[in-house]
C-alpha cells in the first residue's frame, strides 16, 4: 500500500462540479488500495473576497484576525470535499491545521512550518479514511491560527509529504504540468516531463506561478519528488526532482518589477548566461519593435527588461528564439 498526498488548487475546486471531479480523482486513488492525504486551497476567488470583506470593515485589520478570517476558505473546501467523497461512498474526514497539528512560528500572514504532528492523521489512515487537510494554515504556540503566505497550500502539501514519507506528492493545477513557458500565452510552449529542483526554484523566483518557490525549496531540502498535473484525464504531468532532463535550456518566464513600468523576461538553463543567447534575444525583440531597457545575468539565467505592456509578446519572442536555436543546433 502506497501513501499519496494530493493537493488541489483553488481553480480545481472552484465550484460544485469541479469539487466533485476532484473527489472522483481522490476516489480512484483510494480504491487503488492507497492511503490518501488531500490538501485543498480555498475555492476560486474566496481568499480575495474575504480580503475585500475585511477592508470594508477596517483599512488595516489586525493580522491575527485576518489570518483567522482567511483560513476559513480552506476549512470550507475540505469540509465540502469530505461531503463529496461521502456521496461517492468513500470514508473521509476533514481536518484544520490545528487538529493535525501543523505547528508554525508566531508570524501572521507568512508563518514558517516548524513541525507536523502524526498521531491523528495516522489514526485516520489506519481506519482507512481519506484525510482532507486545510492548506495554507498552521497553528502557533499560543494556539492561534497562522497562514503561510502566497502558495501556502503547496507548502502544506510538501511538508505533509515529508512528515509522512509519502510515496508520491501530486500537485493538481489548471495546466497539464510544467511547460517551457506559459502555454496560455505562448503557442509553442512545450511540456517538460522532468525538471530539477534548482531550475524549478529559479523559474518560480523569476515569476513562474505553477509552484511557489518556498514549496520547491522545501521539497529539495526534504527530498520530496513533486508531480505536477492537471485534473483533466490523460494529462501527462511533470516531475520535479533532484535531476532534470539534462537539457541545457529549461524555460522562460516573466515577472513585473515592483514600483516600475518594467517587466523582467527570464530564460533559465544551465547554458545561461551567454553572449550568443543575449544577442539573439535582443535582436529578436528589436525586430518586434520591443525596446530592451536592461539585461541582468546570473548563474543559470538571463533576464531582459522590457516595458510591462510588452511583457507577453516579449515572453513569446524570447522563448521562441532560444528554443528554436537550440533545436536547430
Please write the string of helix (H) and strand (E) elements.
Answer: EHEHHEEEHEEEHEEEEHHEEEEHEEH
Sheet with most strands? 8 strands, mixed
Strands across the major sheet, in which order? 3-6-2-1-9-13-14-12
- Low-confidence stretches are none
- Give the count of helical stretches: 9
Approximate strand percentage: 15-25%
Counting DSSP E segments of at least 2 residues, the number of strands comes to 18
Structural class: alpha/beta
Radius of gyration over all CA atoms, rounded: 21 Å
Summed over residues and divided by their number, the pLDDT gives a mean of 94
Ends apart, CA distance between termini: 46 Å
Helix content: 25-40%
Overall spatial form: globular
Overview in brief:
With 329 residues, this protein is an alpha/beta fold. The chain has helices spanning 16-31, 46-57, 63-87, 119-126, 152-163, 197-205, 213-222, 275-287, 311-328, and strands at 3-8, 35-40, 92-95, 102-104, 113-116, 130-134, 137-139, 145-147, 168-173, 178-179, 191-192, 194-196, 226-230, 238-241, 251-256, 262-268, 294-298, 301-307.
Can you offer a commentary on this structure?
The structure is a single chain. The chain is an alpha/beta fold and 329 residues long. Helix content is 37%, strand content 25%. The chain contains 9 helices and 18 strands. Strands 3-6-2-1-9-13-14-12 form an 8-stranded mixed β-sheet, sandwiched between helices. A 4-stranded antiparallel β-sheet has the order 15-16-18-17. β15 and β16 form a beta hairpin. It is globular, with a radius of gyration of 21 Å.
